Amino acid sequence: MTRSGRPGPPRRRSVARTLLVLLAVALVVVLVLLLLWYLLAGRLTTPGPGEPQVPGAEPPTSQPASCPDVFVLSVPGTWESNAADDPYAPTANPISLMLNVTQPLQQQFGPERAEVYTVPYVAQFSNPVAFPPDGQASYNVSRSEGAAKANEILAQRSSECPLTSYVLAGFSQGAVIVGDLAASIGAGSGPVPADRVLGVTVIADGRRDGTSAQQIGPPVDGVGAEVALGGLDVPGITMTGARQGGFGALADRTFSICAPGDLICAAPPEAMSLRNIPSSLTALAGAAGNPVHGNYARYVIDDAGTTATQWTANWAAGLVASAPTPAHS
C-alpha cells in the first residue's frame, strides 16, 4: 500500500509474489532432498518373531546325521566382513577380531561336533556428516543385513536340526546383532528355543547397559553408544537405546566384555549426548577405529593375563566340550 492507502504499483506486487513462490519452491526442494537422503540412507529393520514353540511338545529322539551337535554363530564387527565372504573360512579381513575365537574352535573340534559359522554381511558404517559421502553402507543397512542373515541361518538350523545346541558371540556391530538375537530368544520370540542356547558373549556391545549381562573383566563406567544416544534417528543411523527386558531367559548365560575408554560400549556423557548431535555423530563414526576398540585381542580381563578373545575362545570351547551329544539317524 502507498501512504495514501492505495495499492502499490502492480510491478512491486508481482515481484513480491514471485519471491514468495521461489521461496516456497526452494523449501519444497530442500524437504524432498532431505526425505530422499533419509530414505536412501536406509531404515533399520529387525527380523520378525520366530516360529512359536508348542507347549508340551515332545522333542524328537534323534536328528539327521548332517546336523552338528553344536552350532557356533560368530558375527564380526564393522569392516571385518563382507556380504560375499565364506562363512566357514572367512577372508574378508584377515585380522578380524572374531577369527581369534572361531579359528581355535575349528582346530579343536570337527564340524560334526561344532559347526562354526561366521555371518557374512556388509559390515560398514557410513559417516552421515561426511562430505563428500564416504561411499559406505549406512549403519542401518549394515546392521539390518547382519541381523537378517544371522536370524535366517539360526532358523534354518533349528528347523533342520531340532536337537542341536547353540553358542553365540559377536564383536562391535556384530555384538549388537548377537545381543539383539539373544534378547529375542530370551523373550521367546527368537529363531531358536532358549533352552537350546548354551551361552552368549558380546564384545564391545553398543547397547550395553551395564546391568543386563554378566560383566567379564574390570568394572567399566559409561554405557553403550546406542544407550547414550537412544532415540537418535538421523539418515542411516537409528540408535535403539537399551534392550527392554534385557536378555530374559538367557540372562544367566549372557556375558559382556567392554574395555575402559571404548566409546562403542562405554560412552561417557561428555563424549556422546543428544545435546550435541553433530559432535556425537562424528565421535560415533570414528569410534570403531579407536585404538582401544580394536585392541580386544590384547585387552587383559583377569589376573592370569587372559585376553578378551582368549577368554571367549576358552568359554566357547568349554561349552562345546560339555554340550549334549544327540543321537543321529
Automatic annotation (TrEMBL):
Q: Name one Pfam family in it.
A: Cutinase
InterPro entries reported in the protein's UniProt record: AB_hydrolase_fold (IPR029058), Cutinase/axe (IPR000675)
Do the record's keywords include Disulfide bond?
A: yes
The keyword Disulfide bond is assigned to this record: yes
Its domain of life? Bacteria
UniProtKB keywords: Disulfide bond, Hydrolase, Serine esterase
Instruction: Give the family this protein belongs to, as stated in its UniProt record.
Output: Belongs to the cutinase family.
For this entry, the protein name equals: Cutinase
Organism listed in the record: Rhodococcoides corynebacterioides
